[in-house]
Specification:
Layout: H1 13-17, H2 22-28, H3 49-53
């Protein structure tokens, strides 16, 4: 699955329509859904030079 920017602002209108504080919305998700999922981004740290050359 890849994440791509969306040029249609209407796709994010649900964020503005929620009558909640931003920190609550981002931590718990939108209201009215039986289940939700969160995307967690964990960057992969760059490999050290010694790790790349170890056989």
């Amino acid at each position: 699955m890849s994440v791509q920017p969306c040029s249609d602002e209407a796709a994010a209108q649900w964020i503005l329509d929620q009558d909640r504080e931003w920190y609550d919305l981002t931590a718990r998700g939108p209201l009215g859904y039986e289940q939700t999922a969160r995307l967690r981004f964990i960057p992969i740290p760059p490999m050290s030079v010694s790790a790349r050359t170890t056989p």
